[in-house]
Amino acid sequence: MSTPKPRRPDTRTRLLTTASRMFAEKGFQETTIADICKQAEANIASVNYHFRDKENLYLQAWRFAFQLDLAAHPVDGGVPCDAPANQRLAGRIRSLMGRIDDDNSHFFAIINKEMAQPTQLLPEILVKEINPQRQAMMAIIKELLGSAASEQNVQYSHASIIGQCFHFARMKHMLANSQLPFELPDELDATAYTEHVIRFSLAGIAALRQPMSGNGEI
Amino acid sequence: MSTPKPRRPDTRTRLLTTASRMFAEKGFQETTIADICKQAEANIASVNYHFRDKENLYLQAWRFAFQLDLAAHPVDGGVPCDAPANQRLAGRIRSLMGRIDDDNSHFFAIINKEMAQPTQLLPEILVKEINPQRQAMMAIIKELLGSAASEQNVQYSHASIIGQCFHFARMKHMLANSQLPFELPDELDATAYTEHVIRFSLAGIAALRQPMSGNGEI
DNA sequence: AAATAATTCAAATGTATATTTGAATTATTC
DNA sequence: GAATAATTCAAATATACATTTGAATTATTT
Which of A18, A126, A201, B31 could form a disulfide with A40 if both were Cys (CB 3.0 to 4.6 A apart)? Predict the structure, then answer.
């Protein structure tokens, strides 16, 4: 009989796994080394032994989480690159939302925290991970905008899409963490909201191609 | 000669002013009483004397900031309530963005922090301040959606709009605080982005009224 | 102006938590 | 299997803060 052996991972790995989850839940400041070690069933000194200090553990934990997320959710959403632009955009939005909705993906939770309370990690994340994805999505948006593809239209449309996605991330996180005395967003259905964002955004982009009908005015 | 007398405000007021600014900048945890007192030119013990403890100062500072914000930016954006729905929506979006862009308005910065790292303050803010505004904006969206005004369409459209606005708040805050080695959003023009959000969102809402053309598909 | 209350102040105390230490244990190499 | 390196451990140390204290000062009342 082949022994499957679900062996207990080594201390370093347990720390990374636990830390990424806890940092995602409570942020850098509010997560204590003592808590991480307790949940990871490791000694209090193991963080300093394996990672030098808390800040470095935070950095490594984020990278660790990022690798897992990316493997589980390819950024193009599985849409081939010769597909029409609207499908490619939809694929990317679905991938983004998939990562946000995946409870094992701590990518966005950590970024969300970072954006509210930046550490030295944020600039690295932005440059190395966020910016490339941003450029790729903006290229698609540019295609969709056609002759209306001014730099500003492209950037703002991108911001509109990302903003909608991040908002879901925040809602989800808030509901999960804070013990709210009521339910704010009655429906927190990731799939339905994802399709809404796609439809809403494609219409928004399409409208930018029109010669500018009265907006805000009648 | 009438003496204008720009007198130094009393300790309590100086603490509230300084605290609301600092909490907005760095959040509850990362702001120390010592820092607040130094900047407010008050003694270290004055917080405990005037506000019992740090948490209560935080609460009072938020209320203080909220009052100022609301006075400076009426929520309806000055649009009369008998104006057409798209204008009323535009008014509310402009008011929202106005508050976000106003450097003396610490309302959103604090909420932003709260959403990432909730304290006991968050539930109160949501119930008392956010929810009423949310209901008002959703009523307008409902009008605009007409026969397509399902509960889900209304909620999701609202989320789309708020998400876009909050995203600007985050961008602005990130650029202001973190020392980024580059400029992410090339244009951080609040007015231009506001008009973009209005146009983008009205088109998104209008699209929901259509029988459902292929979205994401061709 | 004396008496009383409110406020400010510098220093002390308490607490939470990151980090270090050196011995004990386990794994790896020769 | 002895020697060496890697890892774990409980306890000690260090640091950053919030909070308290009681005296000193200022403002208010009578």
Answer: A18
Residues whose C-beta lies under 7 Å from strand C = A 31-34, 44-45, 47-48, 52-55; B 10-11, 42-46, 49-50
Rounded to whole angstroms, how far apart are CA atoms A31 and A38? 12
pLDDT at A185 over 60: no
The tokens describing B86, both together, are 């798209």
Tell me whether residues A178 and B216 touch, CB distance under 8 A.
no
Residue A117 CA to its chain's centroid (Å): 16
| Residues B57, B100 within the same domain | no
Tell me what the mean pLDDT of segment B98-113 comes to.
92
Do B157 and B104 belong to one domain?
yes
If asked whether residues B53 and B91 sit together in one domain, one would say: no
Q: Per-residue DSSP letters for B122-186?
A: HHHHIIIIIHHHHHHHHHHHHHHHGGG--HHHHHHHHHHHHHHHHHHHHHHHHHHHS--SS-SSS
Mean pLDDT of B203-217: 77
**pLDDT score, position B2:** 46
B33 touches strand D (CB under 7 A): yes
B123·A165 Cβ contact <8 A: no
Residues A66 and A78 in one domain: no
Q: Judge whether B152 and B63 are in contact, CB under 8 Å.
A: no
The number of distinct structural domains making up chain A is 2
Instruction: For residue range B12-27, list pLDDT tens digits in order.
Output: 999 999 999 999 999 9
Q: Over pLDDT 70: what percentage of chain A?
A: 89
Shared-domain flag, residues A148 and A185: yes
Q: By CA distance, what is A160's nearest residue in B?
A: B164
**Contact flag A196-B156 (C-beta cutoff 8 Å):** yes
Q: Which residue has the tokens 């394996």?
A: A50
Model confidence pLDDT, tens digit, residues A188-203: 799 999 999 999 999 9
Residue ranges of A 15-54 with Cβ closer than 8 A to chain B: 26-27, 29-30
| pLDDT level of residue B215 (50, 70, 90 thresholds) | very low
One domain for residues B123 and B140: yes
User: Is residue A4 included in any domain, yes or no?
Assistant: no
> Same domain for B139 and B60?
no
pLDDT at A13: 97
Q: Which residues constitute the domain of residue B37?
A: 8-65
Residue B216 counted as domain residue: no
Same-domain status, A57 and A85: no
Tell me the C-alpha to C-alpha distance, in Å, between residue A56 and each of A33, A115, A118, B60, B122: 12, 19, 15, 36, 30
Nearest to B203 among A177, A187, A207 (CB): A207
pLDDT at B4: 54
A174 → chain B, closest CA residue:
B115
